[in-house]
Amino acid sequence: MTDGMMSKAATMEIPINGNGDTGSLQEDDSLEQDLQQVMVSGPNLNETSIVSGGYGGTTEGIIPTGNIKGSNMHQCHSSPSMSEELSRGLAVEKFDVVKKWGINTYKCTKQMFSERFGRGSRTVDLELETQIELLRDTKRKYESVLQLARALTNHFYNMVQTQRALGDAFSDLSQKSPELQFSSLQEEFGYNAETQKLLCRNGETLLGAVNFFVSSINTLVNKTMEDTLMTVKLYETARLEYDAYRTDLDELNMGPRDAATLSRIDVAQQNFHIHKEKYEKLRGDVAIKLKFLEENKIKVMHKQLLLFHNAISAYFAGNQQQLEQTLKQFNIKLKTPGTDKPSWLEEQ
To answer: E strand or H helix at 51, and its extent?
Structure first.
């Protein structure tokens, strides 16, 4: 045990240098200098020192790991840089969009005020402008017809409900009044109850025809015509942009011809041709839609006016058979009461 303690103490006191030789004891000040030297000339943090012990001393092998850590650090730094570049690119793109929108809005506003005050020229297609104004006037008139047809439907629906209530009242008086038994009034109440019920059934049939008429006119006015007018609005906006860039190009051509102006003229010509193509394309689209709308309007209104006339005539003539035949002719199916919502068994 004493030999072990002495060998342990000797081991702790014998320093080993790089060659494996023993050296003399160092003083405190020399130890501090060595520590400072080790700190200064020590291995890089990007290197890993692997010490392998062998016969006759130690062998130190230095394996650089700077490439491994450097790649990780590069990835860590690349992701923020990439995100910064993406955000910067999006910001630049948004700025360009806002800039182009601002320039375009300024030119169009300037052109619009110039036209309003009579100082600017305006491109006019007389035939197309006439057709557009005729469409707008037709739409206003059809909206008035649609409003009146809806009012007629509401009033007639209320009349049918009143007839149903009156027929129920006559039927109740005919069956449940003991003082009228075996009298002529009982029969008269019964006749009137049957008449009101028949009128109610014919009224419901006429309501089906009028509702179909209203639905078709509503589709024509608020969908077909409105779709064409939306294309007309796009065409008018394109026309205003075309005139704005045309005026801008004319003003540049009348100015001095230096290097800066020539570059601006080239840009203005490119913008002018872009908006000219857009204007001509939308003008063709409007002409085609107006043509198809006119054909569709004639076809729809011919069918709906014939339906409305035949249904009204048959109802007020009291011709129930002709009224039902009119609905079959136009493939109109009436909704029977209670069939709107499926039963519990049908839902299962």
So the answer is: strand 47-54
